[in-house]
Every structure is written in C-alpha cells, then in structure tokens.
Amino acid sequence: YDTSVGRVGYPLVSCEIRLRNWDEGNYKNTDKPNPRGEILIGGKVVAQGYYDETSNENINFIEINNTKYFCTGDIGEMHPDGTLKIIDRKKDLVKLRSGEYVSLSKVEMVVNKFSIVENSCLYAAPSAEYTILLISPNQKEITNYAQRNFGEKQWQNLIDDEKFNDMIIKNLQDICKKNGIEKFETPQRIKIVNESWTPETGLVTDAFKLKRKAIELKYKDYIHQLYYEKPIHEPTKRRTSRVAPEPQPIAIETIELSNNVMNNNR
Q1: Mean pLDDT over all residues of the chain?
Q2: Where does the record place a coiled coil (predicted)?
C-alpha cells in the first residue's frame, strides 16, 4: 500500500509510464536522486487519439516502440519506492525578456508556505523583466501580522501602505531564497486582494487549481499598475542553464518505468 503524502501513487498494472526529458524546465530522467520529466502514459487503456483527426490536440499522442502514449504535460518525479509525484506543469512555464524560464506553479508552492498566504498567482507579462504576485490572504493570519507589526487590527487599511507591502515582499523573498528559488523567479511586486478564491468566484476550479486567465482578466488593472512600478530589487541579468535553447527538432528521450519494477518495490 502507498502511504506516502503528496504523491499520486503507483502506476496501474494496465499502464506504462515514461518520463520524457524537458530541457526548457531543466527536468531530466537522469536527474539524481529521483528521475524527473514529462509524464507519458501508454498501454491499452489509453485512447489512440481524438475522434476528430484534425484536432490540434492530437499532437499530444505519440508512438514509441509500437505503443501509443499520451503526453500529459505534467512533470513527474519518480521515487525509489515506485510512487510518482507531480511537481510541475509545462503550461505554467513562462519566458522572461532575459531568456530565463520561470515555473509559475513551483514558485507559488513556495510562497504559499508564508502563513499569511491562502492562495497566490504568480504572473509575468509578455517580455517582462520580473514577476509579480497576486495574493489571496489567510484572513486570520494577515490580521495577526498587521496587528503584530503595525498595531493595526484591520489589515485592509494597510493594503496600499508601502511599508506594509515592502515588509511582506521582504518576507516572501527570504522564503524564496531559503527554498532555492532563483532571484529572477522571485516576485518583485505584490498585490494583496481582499477576496478568497473559491470555485464560486470562478477564479479556481473545484479542485482549487488556479484559473490563470480568469485571474488575469479580473485583476488586469492591478497587474498594469504593478508593472509601472520599479521592482524592489533589480532582477539579475546573469544567464543560467534555464536560458532558452536554440530551436531543435523534438527528440523523444524517455525512461520507461516497468510495472515489474513497481510491483517489486511495493
């Protein structure tokens, strides 16, 4: 039995799982200690494609060794006990003006560790030099934070206060640094919104996953304002391994995770 927390369990006996390298996100199936990459699902339980053969979505189906695989777009990490953990999403990757890629969901998982944050949405405008963060606060925690640091019982009165926001940004940037988030990924501006993101608001799904487009449209004025302000710390211009590679033909380089191996690890 799988008693791990934060993982999606073992592959089913009827499924074949592969991890495909995703160079742009720096995820490889040769990563140590755990292989990482885009999750491909194959086997007889997987559809052969969409009914409409002209659908653009059919590019998500590929064939490897005469087996049809569906490319999920999810980034997985395989653990030694055979369980799989979803750690990222390809669609959550954005490119900054400097050429570096930022994984939105990865940064959000880190900033959500801050007690005052109930939910957050990292955003990078097209060709932006830095990221910004929209925060839906934990009402109890942000009230305590405002009273403890500013003697203010109503945190809403501080929502546009520069010192209040600067302190929160500094706390967030410290958390990001301690958790290995690169400087260019770290949000430079924030906006705290006085609203909880629930499925009823249309800003998250029933599973509380962000609806990024809906959030962007709702808070477009805030986003516009944040990008007209100078960031607290100028983002680094140093180029890293995340710089966009030169366009190359797509190579199907995967690691196959045998069900026999999975079963032996149970």
Answers
A1: 83
A2: none
